[in-house]
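Long-time lurker, first post. I've been practising inverse folding by hand and with some scripts of my own, and I keep getting stuck on stretches where the structure tokens seem ambiguous. Below is the full token string for one chain I'm working on. Before anyone asks, I'm not after the true native sequence, just a reasonable design that respects the backbone. If someone could post their per-position residues I'd love to compare against what I wrote down in my notebook.
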């Protein structure tokens, strides 16, 4: 399907899920700008997209730096004439030790988690919205986490940062819905990709499966990208302000 032809989509954060997102957006016809603090990783994804006949460029982006974000937005406008879609997907994952709770987590890890995950999403949104409005409206998708909506004995800073992103999403959806901007959040649970496969112990895989309603497998970036492509497309034009859990039924909300 080519539901994203002529749309310019900025994906901020390559890595495992970002690779799936950029690849799917390009396969659906979008012109993709893939930004990451690790330029080489974004470049290798872009090469593979181009080899499959897609349109994409890679940029070095620090999503927590106003200067770097401004340069990326300028590149989108200079190269493709505007921005119709923004997917904020990067994350600082320093708060991942299951042994650390609020009493043990170093404050520097807390601060860095909020600086990149919460403040970074805020800064990127603030920089892109005016361009998106000039481009006739568009869709903003935030990658959150099941951790924002589940019990969290660990990863308190990470869960707080991901909950902050959901509040930001609701603000954007509410305030800018009238000018053609939609905003939604995708909340994955454990999503396997080559970058983390080696570090996920078998017991964590089993825990993830047992916490989900779907027991046969855990999620992968293709699952996330399928929902993201719908949200970016005109088929999703009546979906806004939502947190879509792509987690095999790990969390359930009415
Ligand atoms: N994989 C999972 O199990 C899982 C589960 C729930 C939520 N998530 C969320 O999905 C998103 C992607 O996760 P992933 O598993 O693909 O992680 P990943 O580590 O493979 O990718 C994250 C990317 O973000 C980039 N990045 C980090 N800081 C940055 C910055 N300041 N500016 C720009 N880029 C920066 C990294 O270089 C990396 O390429 C994250 O937001 C994560 O919190 C992942």
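-- Answer (accepted) --
I ran through it position by position. Result:
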């Amino acid at each position: 399907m080519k539901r994203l032809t002529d749309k310019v989509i900025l994906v901020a954060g390559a890595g495992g899920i970002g690779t799936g997102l950029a690849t799917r957006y390009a396969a659906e016809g979008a012109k993709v700008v893939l930004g990451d603090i690790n330029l080489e990783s974004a470049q290798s994804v872009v090469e593979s997209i181009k080899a499959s006949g897609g349109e994409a460029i890679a940029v070095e982006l620090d999503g927590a730096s106003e200067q770097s974000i401004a340069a990326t937005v300028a590149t989108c406008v200079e190269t493709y004439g505007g921005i119709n879609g923004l997917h904020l997907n990067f994350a600082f994952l320093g708060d991942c030790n299951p042994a650390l709770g609020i009493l043990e987590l170093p404050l520097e890890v807390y601060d860095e988690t909020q600086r990149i995950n919460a403040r970074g999403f805020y800064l990127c949104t603030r920089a892109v919205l005016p361009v998106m409005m000039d481009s006739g409206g568009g869709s903003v998708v935030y990658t959150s986490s099941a951790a924002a909506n589940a019990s969290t004995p660990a990863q308190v800073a990470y869960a707080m940062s991901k909950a902050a992103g959901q509040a930001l999403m609701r603000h954007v959806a509410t305030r800018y819905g009238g000018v053609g901007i939609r905003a939604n959040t995708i909340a994955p649970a454990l999503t396997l990709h080559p970058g983390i496969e080696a570090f996920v112990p078998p017991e964590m895989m089993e825990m993830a499966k047992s916490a989900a309603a779907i027991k046969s497998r855990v999620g992968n970036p293709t699952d996330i990208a399928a929902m993201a492509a719908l949200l970016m497309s005109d088929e999703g034009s009546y979906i806004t302000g939502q947190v879509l859990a792509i987690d095999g039924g790990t969390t359930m909300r009415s």
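A couple of notes from the structure itself: Strands lie at 8-12, 31-36, 55-60, 85-88, 138-143, 181-188, 243-246. The longest strand covers residues 181-188. Happy to go over any region you disagree with.
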